[in-house]
Design a protein that fits this description.
alpha/beta, 6-stranded parallel beta sheet
Length: 633
């Protein structure tokens, strides 16, 4: 490929620009807004690399198995390796067992690495893993003492390996001339360190390409953007902008451009067959509304819109706060455990009293009840007392909990409801705040879902049951076991956890065992809830209902989108400050990106509802939506 001078590359379209960067041996990033067709360009680039470099292999990484399948279906070639990021990393380090064992021991002995901990050993000896029959393994569950790591530990371990052993980078570069990462903004910082920092320790050459949109980064603990790596100098990442929009109608594109903060302005696609184009080749206008009232009556909003909200495929109601739809979704019992526990709140009240008054007494050997008696003047608030009076047995159980453990117990609705990166194909979410119990339940239900959907190979991989299948009778036993879970009836959550473990459907691992010990009070509350209520939570968070969370819709698109702007008590977001352009910078940025993602889901009609907006909010809404699109109910 003929070399093009750096300054002249901008005159080419984005595909040509990328191929010129590849020809020059430069790493690149394709930045494209919502609906720009980034995946289409990614597929174009993969096909061209395979054509121009027939002896070289291409690696492409994305986040879910569904995305893997989509790319594989578009490009079917022996030189292409498409995987999730975790599978890619494991596939390239799993054979280096000596280095894996040494690194895992080093990390376990590092007090700063709290997520890798062998609780039974204070100082892990160098020969700790020497007798493992199968070496270090990567599975769906964590049993560190047996050398089994899971999703979260893999990234830490891989980062340490590539930093410590540059030879691994050389081997991987020899294997793959091109490595492409889809949805780069959601990539863990540890992964970016591996590719753009640790790989420099090897003198061999290859090309990294990143595809994504920094404005669609709405998850915690991810890289967000690659601004610190961008540039035109050697080893810097060259940016290519993809400015077209193939999804949204004109009014939504105009709104989205007002919300972007990175200088990328989207325009209509030049493709007359794009989904957002009319038959005559003009861009669809669409419809946007900013609706407000003082009573918070969502039914009145829906009545005004006259959309078919039962058509969950084409119409969605997006909520940031799950409490608005807990009763509709049938998950009130679980919500109350994680969000309205007056005993936990009373514990926090006492703990604050100890801290605020600099009380240095050692309460570690006491029970919660003994600490309550010690501070007999620190009484529960009326609301806390109401909860205690309604749950006397629960209160008595809490009084017998060890204060040292109970006082550290943190409970929040995010631990139940956080759905970041969640899909039926990706049960280990990156950046998720879900606790170990809810994660375990999601694994169980995902296995049930895979089997019920006749996705048997994926089901077997997820359960590890394939190692037990040696005869036809073993398959019959597995069929009986999983169908028993499908027909859950009135079984409790504890009964299903036990049955799934005993039947090899979902193994109880270190994380759940630790949860049972460290959060016994919460586990005892959750375990008696009917499992069918958790199933309702699963279907709600997976998007199989007419309503959804705003995080959950990332990457999706619908004809009609209603967004309910309600913070729901979340301090991480503030919609009023978004419109007023005030408040903490991090909260403002997080809210603006979430709002951008919500608005750009719409292919036809977009409606925003805001309860009791101030004059300042209405002024900004008028600026963004246009005076004729402000509706008071």
């Amino acid at each position: 490929m003929a070399e093009v001078v750096e300054g002249n590359i901008q005159a080419l379209d984005e595909f040509q620009q990328i191929m010129e960067h590849i020809g020059n041996g430069n790493n690149f990033i394709l930045s494209g807004g919502a609906g720009s067709g980034k995946t289409y360009t990614l597929v174009q680039v993969i096909k061209k690399c395979i054509e121009d470099f027939p002896t070289s292999k291409v690696a492409c990484m994305t986040y879910t198995n569904a995305a893997v399948k989509e790319i594989e279906e578009r490009v079917n070639h022996k030189n292409l390796n498409v995987t999730t990021i975790h599978d890619f990393l494991w596939d390239n380090i799993k054979h280096f067992q000596k280095e894996l064992k040494q690194s895992l021991i080093a990390l376990a002995n590092d007090e700063l690495i709290t997520r890798i901990n062998i609780s039974t050993v204070t100082n892990v000896p160098n020969d700790f893993f020497d007798e493992l029959e199968k070496g270090i393994q990567y599975k769906e569950y964590l049993r560190l003492q047996e050398g089994i790591i899971s999703h979260d530990e893999l990234l830490i371990l891989a980062n340490h390996l590539f930093k410590t052993y540059p030879k691994l980078s050389s081997i991987l570069k020899d294997r793959f001339k091109f490595i492409f990462v889809d949805e780069y903004q959601d990539t863990d910082k540890l992964v970016i360190e591996i590719f753009l920092e640790h790989f420099k320790l090897s003198e061999k050459k290859n090309v990294f390409g990143f595809f994504g949109d920094s404005m669609q980064c709405i998850y915690d603990n991810t890289i967000g953007d690659l601004d610190s790596y961008k540039g035109t100098e050697d080893e810097k990442v060259r940016e290519v902008k993809k400015e077209q929009n193939r999804r949204n109608p004109k009014l939504v594109i105009d709104l989205a451009n007002r919300l972007r903060t990175d200088g990328l302005t989207q325009t209509m696609s030049g493709d007359k067959k794009a989904p957002n184009m009319n038959e005559d080749g003009t861009l669809k206008v669409g419809d946007i509304k900013f609706i407000y009232s003082n009573n918070g009556d969502i039914d009145a909003v829906k009545e005004y819109l006259s959309w078919d909200f039962e058509d969950s495929k084409n119409t969605k109601e997006l909520n940031l706060t799950h409490s608005l739809i807990a009763d509709k979704a049938g998950i009130r019992n679980l919500m109350n455990i994680y969000n309205n526990d007056g005993i936990i709140n009373y514990k926090n009240r006492i703990r604050r009293h100890i801290k605020d008054n600099d009380i240095m007494e050692d309460f570690s050997a006491m029970t919660f009840g003994q600490v309550i008696d010690y501070f007999d003047g620190v009484n529960p608030t009326p609301r806390m007392q109401e909860f205690i009076d309604a749950n006397p047995e629960l209160y008595e159980e809490a009084r017998h909990q060890n204060w040292d453990i109970f006082s550290k117990m943190y409970v929040d609705k995010d631990q139940l409801l956080d759905d970041k990166k969640q899909s039926e194909d990706d049960d280990n979410k990156k950046g998720s705040k879900r606790d170990a119990l809810i994660r375990h339940l999601f694994k169980i239900e995902t296995n049930i879902f895979l089997y019920s959907s006749k996705r048997y190979n994926e089901f077997l991989r997820a359960t590890d049951y394939r190692f037990n299948i040696k005869r036809i009778e073993d398959k019959k036993v597995l069929k009986t076991n999983i169908e028993s879970l499908i027909n859950v009836g009135e079984k409790t959550i504890e009964e299903v956890i036990t049955e799934a473990n005993e039947n090899g459907i979902c193994i109880i691992d270190d994380k759940l065992e630790r949860f049972r010990t460290d959060k016994e009070y919460i586990f005892n509350r959750v375990k008696s809830v009917k499992y069918k209520e958790f199933q309702k939570l699963y279907f709600y968070l997976e998007g199989y209902t007419p309503f959804s969370t705003q995080h959950k819709t990332k990457g999706a698109e619908f004809d009609n989108v209603l967004v309910i702007l309600d913070n729901g008590g979340w301090r991480s977001y503030n919609f009023q400050n978004l419109f007023l352009e005030t408040g903490t910078a991090s909260v403002l940025e997080r809210t603006q990106k979430l709002f951008y993602v919500c608005c750009t889901r719409s292919k036809e009609r977009l409606a925003i509802y805001f309860k009791s907006p101030s004059e300042g909010v209405l002024s900004k809404a008028t600026e963004w939506f246009g005076e004729g699109n402000i509706v008071a109910l």
